[in-house]
Structures are given as C-alpha cells and as structure tokens.
Specification:
206 residues, 21-stranded parallel sheet, 21 strands, 1 helix
C-alpha cells in the first residue's frame, strides 16, 4: 500500500504559523509521497514517491531517490540530493550545503536560489535549467553558487544563465553542450506555474 504523508493542518496554513516540528528525521520508503508545508524538520530521506517542501526549514540532509523532488521557499541547513528522480526542482530557496542532481529523467530547474556548497549535475536528461530562463519557463530572480558548479555526462538541453558562480565551472561529456548566458534558448509559452510558485511544475497524478 502506498502512503501519502502531509505535514500540515488547514488552520495553521491559513494563519501563516509554523505548521509542524519534527525533532528527528523523516524517512519514507515506497511511499506515494510527502508534502511538507511550513514545517520544521531535521532531515528527509525518501526512496520512491514525491517530496514537496514548501516554505519549510530543513535542518539536516535532504535526499530523494527514484521519485520527484520539489523545493520552494525553503531553507536547508545541509545538503540536497536528487538521484534518479523524475525531476529535481529548486525555487526561491537556500541550500547551505552541497547540491547534487543526478540521473533525473526529465531534468530539473534551479531558479532564484542560493547554494553555498558545490553544485553537481550529472547524467540528467530532457531539460536542465540552471539559474535563469530556459525552455522550461521564466525565472525572474538571479541565482548564487558559492562553490564549484559541475554539469557532466548529460543528454539534457542544459542552460546556465543569470547566475553568480564563485567557484569553477566544469562542463564535460554533455550532448548537447551546456549553453551559457544570452545564447540560452527561451520558453515560447508561459510555464504552468510562476517561478516561485508553491506548486510543482509537473504535479504527480493522484
């Protein structure tokens, strides 16, 4: 049986107060998914199923595998890892540790966000939109990378734009090659949601 976890209550969401505090880590395996709304958790470790973290504080590492990962308006005190997901999307968020996005079937977005550790994108497919506008839609805010950025071994249409990279940039083994700056292609139609939306750009069917 698939289990759906939703850490929130309607009254708390409406009032704008913190929804829930979990002092330990949240671990799921083969769950349908987990939606964190205005929540405070130590860490998240999910295998299969979606993880949506919206307006939340995450104090430890967040890791998802073979699911979907969407982070918006949140602060992560440690690392963020999306491995072999459908997608790994980060909007208007801060990652104080490292960011790893690898083997995502339909790529990912990093928009109007900050990461202070190394950022590694490896083996992603479809479309990869890092730091600016691209084929997946618009992104109004700039992004910041405090360490090295690596984009490697991907078959995605990959774009890096409107971003500050304090470390080195490595782009190897990509086909097509990573496109940087003003040469990046733009979306020809409005995206399904705005760049800082509280809803995933590719919502999972119930």
């Amino acid at each position: 049986m698939k289990i759906r976890t939703f850490i929130a209550t309607a009254s708390q969401v409406a009032s704008g107060s913190p929804v829930a505090t979990v002092k330990g880590a949240l671990t799921t395996e083969s769950a349908f998914g987990t939606h964190l709304e205005k929540s405070n958790l130590k860490a998240v470790n999910a295998t299969e199923g979606f993880v949506y973290a919206v307006d939340s504080m995450l104090g430890g590492n967040v890791s998802t595998e073979t699911g979907e990962l969407y982070v918006s308006g949140s602060t992560l005190s440690a690392s963020l890892t999306g491995d072999s997901n459908q997608y790994t999307d980060v909007y208007d968020s801060t990652v104080k540790g490292a960011l790893t996005s690898s083997g995502n079937a339909v790529g990912g977005v990093f928009c109007a966000s900050e990461v202070y550790g190394a950022a590694k994108y490896a083996g992603n497919s479809d479309n990869l939109q890092i730091g600016g506008e691209g084929l997946l839609g618009s992104c109004a805010g700039a992004s910041y990378f405090g360490g090295d950025v690596e984009v490697t071994d991907s078959t995605a249409n990959a774009v890096l734009d409107n971003a500050i990279v304090r470390g080195g940039l490595t782009a190897t083994g990509n086909n097509p090659v990573l496109v940087v700056g003003e040469l990046a292609p733009r979306a020809t139609a409005p995206p399904p949601t705005s760049s800082t939306s509280g809803a995933p750009r590719r919502p999972r069917a119930a």
